Prior knowledge:
3-stranded antiparallel β-sheet; single chain; alpha+beta; binds zinc ion; 2 domains
Amino acid sequence: MKPNPQTISITDLSLVDLNMWKSGVQVLMLTFVDDKTLQKVAEAFGGEEAVQIVNVLRGVSETTDDEIAQQTEIRLNTVRKILYKLYDHSLVGLRRSRDKTTGWFIFHWRLQLDQLAGFILNQKRRVLEKLETRLTYEQNHDFYYCGTEGCKRIPFEEAMELVFRCPTCTKLLMHFDNEKLKTSLQERVEALRKELGE
Ligand SMILES: [Zn+2]
């Protein structure tokens, strides 16, 4: 039995217990997936149709692709395609049974909300990794830019080789101040690290 943290006074706990309690709360928060997040993930996987499919799955313990197609009026093939996409990421689970009269397989689908929390966590970790890589790149380079919209910033070494002429528009390359960009990247990295408890 886990003690309910709300019934325990903080002063009764040793530091170790307190840390365990804190991490417990964090895990709870991360495994809780609200409707809005669920809709967003579904939408990313298969647009409005995936949202409809997920909404059907949310209301039942499990159901067949046939039933989903009937309820949503989405073509069976599309329903299956979206379900398999979700299945690839473990967001839905699958159970197979055999129809006694026809001998065909019946596929029973269920939503795996616990997996969804893990999926979102992984996505956030990937975003964090990308942001960190980008931040390091910005920190380690000095950039030069012509000021023309659509032209690229060029790192110092390359700019020198180009004798500080933009290879696209031939304008003079000037030093580009990336302090603001670095600050904003740093802020996003820190916010995500905090959210992920890293
Ligand atoms: Zn240019």
